[in-house]
Specification:
5-stranded parallel beta sheet; Rossmann fold; globular
């Protein structure tokens, strides 16, 4: 049976760690200049409603490094759900390719795509979830810290798709996840409730960023204004101004804290230049790891590990 990756909860704890190990091996192979092409003659369709530099380049490059081929379908190539039904696109692309990756607005569209596709579907991002990003984030933390257990991970900012995926991860892997969000911008209530009910992790919610980052081992932030929210820009800037990750906020955390951001960063808004480019930042290691972890996900889903 085909496997999809639409949410982190599609994988068990053991499978997540398995993917981390595959990613570690694939990264080692690439860094040693060696070749490993288990996906020779395989093709991937990449559907983009939302444009992205990292998602496109990391998936396309990753598929090439694994011996396969990726086809980029821009927002004008496929007006998914408008010019053509999602179910029809799923059926057609399943006849042409071996796997589909989609970066969409509505989460219901990725669910429908997976329902009708007969090949694996990967969620490259929806307004609700960003699972590939958080898988890569966890891989980065494991590289830097060795384990998630006994770590305090403080997420500061908007309760968006990235935070929702962090909550899904907290229902699979044990951690101390601390949320620092404005009251009106908390994460999805159902996802937060499910993560807490799982009992896997300690999850705390504050509306004060200074309380959230106190003694943190990891500080994570993301943009205040996501794609499609441009009309709220000025309002969000005002509400979130106390949530900026600057040197003063970082100094409240552990001395060995690492700072993460999924990029693109709006420098001077949610994070300052001095932090992005500073000694605690692992932002660009984190971005690189999208390549290695997504390759591992492709290997896992296509059954060639």
């Amino acid at each position: 049976m085909k496997r999809d990756f639409l949410a982190i909860t599609d994988f068990t704890k053991d499978e997540i760690y398995e993917i981390m190990e595959i990613a570690r091996e694939l990264k080692k192979v690439q860094k040693n200049g060696k070749s490993y092409k288990p996906l020779k003659d395989k093709s991937m369709a990449m559907i983009f409603q939302k444009p992205s530099a990292r998602t496109r380049v990391s998936f396309e490059t990753g598929m090439y490094q694994l011996g396969g081929h990726a086809v980029y379908l821009s927002p004008t190539d496929i007006q998914i759900g408008k010019r053509e039904a999602v179910s029809d696109i799923a059926r057609v692309l399943s006849r042409y390719t071996d796997v589909i990756m989609a970066r969409l607005f509505g989460h219901e569209d990725i669910l429908e795509l997976a329902e009708y596709a007969t090949v694996p579907v990967i969620n490259g991002l929806t307004d609700l979830l960003h699972p590939c990003q958080v898988m890569s984030d966890v891989f980065t933390i494991l590289e830097k810290k060795g384990s998630l257990e006994n770590l305090k991970i403080a997420y500061i900012g908007d309760g968006n798709n990235v935070l929702n995926s962090w909550l899904n991860m907290a229902s699979r892997l044990p951690m101390n996840l601390v949320l620092g969000t404005p009251e009106e911008y908390e994460p999805d209530k159902e996802i937060l409730s499910m993560a807490k009910k799982s009992g896997v992790s300690q999850i705390d919610l504050y509306h004060n960023p200074k309380m959230a980052v106190k003694n943190a081992d990891v500080i994570y932030t993301d943009v205040w204004v996501s794609m499609g929210q441009e009309k709220e820009k000025e309002l969000r800037r005002e509400i979130f101004k106390e949530y900026q990750v600057d040197d003063d906020l970082v100094n409240l955390a552990d001395d060995d804290v690492i700072v993460m951001h999924c990029l693109p960063a709006h420098r001077g808004e949610e994070i300052t230049d001095s932090v992005v480019d500073g000694p605690h930042s692992v932002v660009f290691d984190e971005a690189e790891n999208r390549l290695h972890v997504q390759k591992a996900i492709l290997v896992k889903l296509l059954g060639t590990e």
